[in-house]
C-alpha cells in the first residue's frame, strides 16, 4: 500500500482528522498529508501512503488553485465565516470597478501576513492555539505569489474568486486584506481547493468512499513513479538495481537508457527494472547518487 491518495475532503474534519480516518479504515499507519485544508474548506487533499511518505517534501511546495467565496461587508476575528464579526456591517458595498482595482494589488508577488488563526508556528506553538487563548501574537509577513486571480461580478455581498498561488498563501488573508483595501471589511465565506501541483480534484475520491474501500485502496492509489511526472527519469539494469537499493551511486553503465541528466537541482526518479520507483537521486560527478531510497 504505497502511493498518493487524492481525497475530496468534505467540510467539517481537519486535515489531521482525515489522515486519522484513512489510517483506521486502511490499517496503514504510514499516512501523511501534503498541505492542510481548513476544517470548513472542501476539495483536494493529497495524502502520501506507505513508502510514498518519503515524497511528501516534493509535493508540499507546489502551486495550488482555489475557488473562493468572499463575503463583503464585515471582517471576522478568524477571517472566515466561523469567526465573530469585528465591526458593524458596512452599509455601502463597493462596485465592480473598485473591486477590480483592489484585486490588482493582489496579483503577482507581495508580502502577506498569515491569519492569527493559522498553523504558523510562533516560539514552538501554533498561532491558532495562541489566538484561542487570546495571547497577542505578531505574525511576520511572508512573500507569496499569486499567479492567476479571476472573479465573477459580485452577487450582492458575495464575491466569487478563482486564485492560483504559491504554497503558503492564505485565501483567508486575501479576503481579510481585500476588505481592508475596499474599506468595507470582508471574510472568507467558502473555500474549495481544486488543484495542488499537477493533481486535480476531478481525480480525487470522496473520503466516505475511501472509508468504504478500507484495506482495498490499490485501485485509487497513484503509484509513486507517477506522482512526480515533472522530474527526469532513468531506469536501472539488474546490476544497477543491486547498487541503488543499497544507496550506492550508479553510472551510465547501470542504466537502460544510458543517460545522466545534469544542470538541474531537481532530483531524478530512479526506476527499478520493473518500473516501480526505487529512489530519488542527484546527478553529481557523472553519476547518480541516491538521496531517498523507497525500496
What does this protein structure show overall?
Helix 1 (15-26) packs parallel to helix 6 (207-213). This protein has helices at residues 15-26, 56-60, 96-104, 127-132, 171-182, 207-213, 238-244; strands at 3-9, 31-33, 42-49, 64-72, 108-112, 121-122, 125-126, 142-151, 158-165, 186-196, 199-200, 205-206, 221-222, 233-235, 268-271, 277-284, 287-293. With 295 residues, the protein is of the alpha+beta class. The strands form three sheets. Strands 1, 2, 3, 4, 5, 8, 9, 10, 11, 12 and 13 form an eleven-stranded mixed beta sheet that branches. It folds into three domains: 3-62 and 198-226, Pseudouridine synthase (2-Layer Sandwich); 64-196, 2-Layer Sandwich (Pseudouridine synthase), CATH 3.30.2350.10; 233-293, PUA domain (Archaeosine Trna-guanine Transglycosylase, Chain: A, domain 4).
Amino acid at each position: 500500500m504505497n502511493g498518493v491518495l487524492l481525497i475530496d475532503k468534505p467540510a467539517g474534519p481537519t486535515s489531521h482528522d482525515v489522515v486519522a480516518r484513512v489510517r483506521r479504515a486502511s490499517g496503514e499507519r504510514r499516512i501523511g498529508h501534503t498541505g492542510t485544508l481548513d476544517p470548513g474548506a472542501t476539495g483536494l487533499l493529497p495524502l502520501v501512503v506507505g513508502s510514498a511518505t518519503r515524497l511528501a517534501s516534493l509535493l508540499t511546495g507546489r502551486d495550488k488553485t482555489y475557488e473562493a467565496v468572499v463575503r463583503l461587508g464585515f471582517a471576522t476575528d478568524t477571517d472566515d465565516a466561523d469567526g465573530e464579526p469585528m465591526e458593524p456591517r458596512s452599509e455601502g458595498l463597493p462596485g465592480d470597478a473598485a473591486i477590480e482595482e483592489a484585486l490588482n494589488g493582489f496579483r503577482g508577488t507581495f508580502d502577506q501576513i498569515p491569519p492569527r488563526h493559522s498553523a504558523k508556528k510562533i516560539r514552538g506553538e501554533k498561532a491558532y492555539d495562541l489566538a484561542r487563548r487570546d495571547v497577542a501574537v505578531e505574525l511576520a509577513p511572508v512573500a507569496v505569489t499569486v499567479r492567476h486571480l479571476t472573479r465573477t461580478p459580485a452577487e450582492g455581498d458575495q464575491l466569487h474568486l478563482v486564485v492560483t498561488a504559491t504554497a503558503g498563501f492564505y485565501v483567508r488573508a486575501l479576503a481579510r486584506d481585500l476588505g481592508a483595501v475596499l474599506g468595507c471589511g470582508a471574510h472568507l465565506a467558502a473555500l474549495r481547493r481544486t488543484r495542488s501541483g499537477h493533481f486535480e480534484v476531478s481525480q480525487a475520491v470522496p473520503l466516505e468512499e475511501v472509508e468504504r474501500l478500507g484495506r482495498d485502496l490499490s485501485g485509487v492509489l497513484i503509484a509513486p513513479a507517477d506522482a512526480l511526472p515533472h522530474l527526469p527519469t532513468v531506469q536501472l539494469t539488474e546490476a544497477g538495481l543491486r547498487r541503488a537499493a543499497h544507496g550506492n551511486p550508479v553510472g551510465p553503465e547501470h542504466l537502460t537508457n544510458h543517460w545522466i541528466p545534469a544542470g538541474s537541482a531537481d532530483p531524478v526518479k530512479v526506476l527499478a527494472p520493473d518500473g516501480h520507483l526505487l529512489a530519488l537521486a542527484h546527478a553529481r560527478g557523472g553519476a547518480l547518487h541516491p538521496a531517498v531510497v523507497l525500496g
